[in-house]
Amino acid sequence: KYLNDLLRPFVNKILQPTTFRDEPDFIQKLHQYVHIDKRLRATTLFCTLQISNYYALDLHQRMIDTVGCFLQDNLLSNKLEQLTIQTIKNLLHIYLYYHIFYYKNQIYKMAKGSPTTMALSETLSTIYLFVWESRITK
To answer: So which domain of life are we looking at (predicted)?
Structure first.
């Protein structure tokens, strides 16, 4: 909970220009894109992606590295509030690598992704997809 409460407001602020909250927000941003910024061209492509296994996107270390790069690219200093980027990465390592669960008399450990029941999983996946999207749209 602590990490999500730390990361989520920062992530929302960074992603706000490229994220749609609801239909009116989409219409407003589309209007800005088309009429004010005049960026709509005949060659503009719109697409929808469907991602299966959204919360099991990648290996833990790659997720941690992606969050680290995202923070380095978007923070003015090496800290988010009182925590350094390295400390955040260390906490993410603990969260991802030591998340175990019990199911049908067996103990399991997740090898990829993170549990869908945790709010931090959505935040991590959002960061991961933002970085991925940034790379393919350049």
So the answer is: Eukaryota
